[in-house]
What does this fold into?
Amino acid sequence: MEKSMQNTKQNFTIRDIMTIAAMMVICFIIMMIIAAITLPFPIIYLYASAGIDGFLGAIFFLVAANRVNKHGLLFSWAAIYGLIQGIMGYAFLIPYFLIVASISELSMIGKNTYRNPIRSMIGWTLNCIGNFVGCAVPLWWAWNSYKDMAKSSGFTSQTLNMQLSMVTTPSFMLAGIIITAALTILGTLFGQRLLRKHFKKAGIVR
Amino acid sequence: MIDWEKTNNRLDKIDGRTIFFLTVCSCFITFLSTSMLNHALYTIWLLLILCFFGFLKQSLYFSSFYLLSLIGLIIETNHNISFPSPLLLSMIYKLILPAMSAYLLIKIPSGKLTASLRKIPIPNKFMLVLIVMLRFAPTIIYEFGEVKEAMKIRGFLKSFTNIFSHPLNTLEYAIVPMVFRSLTISDELAASAIVRGIESPYNKDSYYISIITYIDIILLLISTLLAVYCCFF
Amino acid sequence: MKNKISIHNLSFSYNGKGNQLKNINLNIHSGEVIVLTGSSGSGKSSLTKVINGLIPYFFEGELNGKIFINNKPLNDVPSWQRGKIIGNVFQDPRSQFFANEVAGEIAFACENYGYSHHEICEHVNSSAREMKIEKLLNNSIHSLSYGMRQKVAIASAKAIDPEIYVMDEPSANLDISSTYILGNIIKDLKSQGKTIIIAEHRLYYLMDIADRFLLIQNGRIIHEFSEKQMINLNNKDIYSFGLRSPDLYQIQYKERNSISFDNIALKVRNLCKTFKNMYALNNLNFICRTGEVIAIIGPNGSGKSTLGRILAGLLKENSGEIFLFDYKSKRKDRLSKVWYIPQDLDSQLFGENLLDELITGSAKTEERIKRAEQILSELELTAFEKQHPSTLSGGQKQRLALGVALMHDAPIIILDEPTSGLDGKNMRNVSNLIRKLANIGHTILVITHDAECALACCERAIRLENGNITDNFKITSSNLLLEKIGY
It folds into this structure.
């Protein structure tokens, strides 16, 4: 009995799967609310929504990470995120999200890294930066159809260019990445605080 | 009792994979098609499908939203208006198409969807997380309501200044009970699934039918052809 | 009769948390109905979990001793296979369901055990037919009442046709009529020769069904009663064992006519609430005097919780007026004055420890901390002051929730099912506390289908059915209340 328990420890148990699913659902519902609020403001949507997602998601990710503490968690999390994004419309981004998932998971190599505050912060931040870049893609795409429309109806090229620069200039993208990373790191700090204050104290995560 | 032969509900007869494929198709169209006309063409096709399954009212909503955002976009671009953002409008009208097929996907009983999903080659563990997430969504939304109510009682949501002067506290009040509740539920659900053999190694069949019938084939065929046309011509 | 289940020298401890079960020896015969009872945390739930295999597979810990089912060691049966022999029904009708639709839920175990589509349909349909829920197969589980959900849970267990059923507090969230229906279902299962093990606080509905009652305390089986011995237990024994009454008619009601306050705290006039053009509350009129404790009774879905939420300002009424201390009140004014404590307390706890729970949300002044400490000591919670609120037991949480209401000086308190899932001792504790608060001038409405609680603390009862007040009466005897509540 003891031995078989030891072996299964490396695989996700049903409880682990349920924990991950529960935390991801909360995350997704929050993300949808944030997307709905920020969508009318393209600048915020583009630069900050991935960061806000990362900030709030960090708490739920940390709960799952500390509870499950098994490799493959971040990969599954990011891959499922990508898969759902795929089903919801960005199908061609699935391979991209799988790469993000692999890189994030690779950053977690080592023993007990999921319970290590610094390591889980790094992993989660990488994942969120990946999501940020991924999220910018649909905007480029929306841009194209909008541009066609605008051109055909005599929109001033000046306004057009200003908006285009927002999505295509590398320095702006870099700014976005920095904003995302900063928010995400703050999120993991806040998450660690909640872990200590509530969840570890109550004994539901170790 | 569900009598599969006599059911009037066409959605009960359809295979989950067909709807799934339809969703993927509409996603591709919405992202790859460069012509507005083609996009509109596929939207009309989906409206027809919605009507076929008996969602007349919903298809009316979808089409009016589609038209409104499209007209709004045309007006804005012609008159140089930038609020609400034309980018937003162009996003809305494009997202209505996948939203319609996603709506059909939601309307399928989750057990049936599960059965269909099992036949798509995705690793079992991922599948299970997806299935459990489907199960959790209504519960979590319900729990959000409970927590919001509790926060109201305590006066945490009394005023804007109350919420925004201590945003982190407000966040903590919202998140902590949510996490506690959902971890309890997820543990109980896991226990209830384990004692009913979720870990058994058998091949799993379903209560719900997932067989491709001639309706599926017709739908699949037209959808594919139309999708190819809309993307490339 | 042959032994169905036999347990030898069983002990169990959660990792390092002391023994949950100590030296249990038990033989259960084929076709027997066994009720495990005892106070919360006594180990009765743990014993059911040992039998269905969740201990130690899911709840890890140290398990010693031997269990045989049909003379076969349980250890030899892989955990995933046990579900074929043992059907399970759990307590919470919200968290034990895996599917969103009834049919999928009933089919769940059959699907897992590799039945063909055809077999699954047969099993599901026949199980649903026997439970008389065949019309609901297409419905969403979330739209069903708790009573119906429990039926679905049993149908789901039944679909596999196991020889043994294990139920963990199956009646905790049910109203009276659903509880009796549950009793009849268990009786049916028994007549089919099934072996049934039930861990339960409420005993009255099992009296003519169970063969043996096992009293568990501190992880040991300390008594075994036959039905006759159980019914003959006097109130003193019942209280000292911390049990609920096996015969509700035996509860004595002490009449309370000590309304020392006679100003009107709450007046409801022509209150109406509709949901989707259906009346949830239809033209309600009643008053509550200061210091009164009123039971709101009636079947599930009769509008009790809706009434509570409207009074507390969480929902808006469609028409009608609500007066608090003679002043007509708007919804927002009621929010802090009428305090609503819902049934599920987990979503109510925000603090990092009990003291923080009381003072969180406003300034931590010296004065408030003092007041909070005083409240904790009045509620006998001081010993747990440093603990996280979520680690408390059900009864303690209920007391803490009342403490929060006290901290906010709410003159009117509404409790929604405060005693569901509580054992006898905790139920009496909470009831006494409610009494105590009423005596210092709080007006309290208790929404409940727990007759024992209503008899222990309420002096008047308002009965709702389909959104109408059908009765509004002073409780003069236990028989009167029991009759109105539907025993």
In short: Residues 3-248 of chain C form a domain with the Rossmann fold fold (CATH 3.40.50.300). Residues 84 and 113 of chain C are 8 Å apart (CA to CA). The first strand of chain C starts at residue 3 and ends at 14.
